Amino acid sequence: MHMSSPLPENPLCLDDQVCFSLYSAANAMVRAYRPYLEQLQLTYPQYLVMMVLWERNGISVKLLGEQLHLDSGTLTPLLKRLELKGLVCRGRSQQDERMRELALTDAGQALREQAMSVPLQMFCRTGLTPAQLTELKQLCDQLWSQLAE
Amino acid sequence: MHMSSPLPENPLCLDDQVCFSLYSAANAMVRAYRPYLEQLQLTYPQYLVMMVLWERNGISVKLLGEQLHLDSGTLTPLLKRLELKGLVCRGRSQQDERMRELALTDAGQALREQAMSVPLQMFCRTGLTPAQLTELKQLCDQLWSQLAE
DNA sequence: CCACATCAAATTGCACACAATATACTGGTT
DNA sequence: AACCAGTATATTGTGTGCAATTTGATGTGG
C-alpha cells in the first residue's frame, strides 16, 4: 500500500509502497538462509517445521499449522519430504485416527545440534542492531495481527 | 534469526525469531491483497509488474526484474499470463532482438484507473499509523540492502 | 443406531520464487 | 567471415502457499 506522507501524489508508485519492501525483504531473507540451511538439507519452511517439532514433538498437523500460519495444503507435501529425508515420522493418533502424530526420528532430534548455530549466523548477516530487529519484529507482529482478523 | 535480547536462552525458539514474523507478515499481506486484486483479475506479483509498467511502459524484462528483484524464471511465465489476459504485449526490441519490449495494451493502461483505489484500501486494512508504516518500510529496506550484498 | 454435521488431513489446481541450464542474439577479434 | 565471450530471455525442476474440494473418522441429535 502507499507510504502516506501524508497524501502521496502517486499512490501507485512502487518505491513508496511498504508492502513491496516487506515482500522483497521476506524473499531476500529466505534466500539468505539458503547457504546456512543447505548444510542441514533443509529449506526455510522445512526449518520452521523442525523448530516447532524440536519444541513440541508429537503434535498434530493442525497445531503445527496454527503455529506456522500454514495450512495442510502446504504442510502435507512438506512433511512427506521431511519423512523421506528420515527426519520425521508421520504416525496416527491412537485416540483420534484422523490426526497425525508428528514425531521426530533420531536423525531429526540430532539435527537440532547442527541448527543451533544458524540463528546467530543469520543475526550477523542482517547487519541490524538488536533494537532494530526488535522494532521490526513488533511491527511485523502487529501487522500480522491486524491482517489476520 | 533470534531476537537477541541480549542472549536468548533458546536461539531456536520460533516465537523469538524476527525472520518468522517477517515471513508470516509478508504471507498475510499477499493474502490481504487478494480480495482487492481479484476485482482486477491480478495476483499480487502481477500487480507489482503492472505498477512498474504504468510508470515505465516499454521496458525490458531485465529492467523489470531489477526493479522488482525477480528473475526471468519468475517473470517470463508471469508475463505470459498477463499477455493471455490481454494486458501486456511482449514484443521484441528493434535495436536488440534479445530484449523484450513490454508494452501495455489499451486494457492494461485502462486497468490503472481501477487500481488507483487499492493502495488506500490496503492502508486502512493494515491498521498501522503512517509513522509505523514509514518505520517498517525503512527497516525492510535496510534489511534488504544488507542481504543483497 | 443411524443420518448428519463436523473435523483432520489429503488432494487438486494454479501461481509464484529461484537455482541451474539452455537458447539465441550481439559485439568484438582475428 | 568464423570464432567467441557476453548478454537477454526462456526452460526445467523443485518446493512452496493457498483456495477449493475430497476423503475418512468422529460425535451428536433424533
Give the gist of this structure.
With 149 residues, chain A is mostly helical. Chain A has helices at 18-37, 44-55, 61-68, 72-84, 106-115, 118-126, 130-148, and strands at 88-92, 100-104. Chain A folds into 3 domains: 1-37; 41-112, Winged helix-like DNA-binding domain superfamily/Winged helix DNA-binding domain (Arc Repressor Mutant, subunit A, Orthogonal Bundle); 117-149.
| Name of the top-level CATH class of the largest domain in chain A | Mainly Alpha
Largest sheet of chain A: 2 strands, antiparallel
Unreliable residue runs of chain A: none
CATH architecture of the largest domain in chain A: Orthogonal Bundle
Strand content of chain A: 5-15%
Q: Explain this structure to me?
A:
The structure is a homodimer of 149-residue chains. With 149 residues, chain A is mostly helical. Chain A has 3 domains: 1-37; 41-112, Arc Repressor Mutant, subunit A (Orthogonal Bundle), CATH 1.10.10; 117-149. Helices cover 61% and strands 7% of the residues of chain A. Chain A contains 7 helices and 2 strands. Chain A has helices spanning 18-37, 44-55, 61-68, 72-84, 106-115, 118-126, 130-148, and strands at residues 88-92, 100-104. In chain A, β1 and β2 (100-104) form a beta hairpin. In chain A, α1 (18-37) packs across α6 (118-126). The relative contact order of chain A is 0.10. Chains A and B meet through α1, α2, α6 and α7 of A and α1, α2, α6 and α7 of B. Chain A binds a DNA duplex (30 and 30 nucleotides) through α1, α2 and α4.
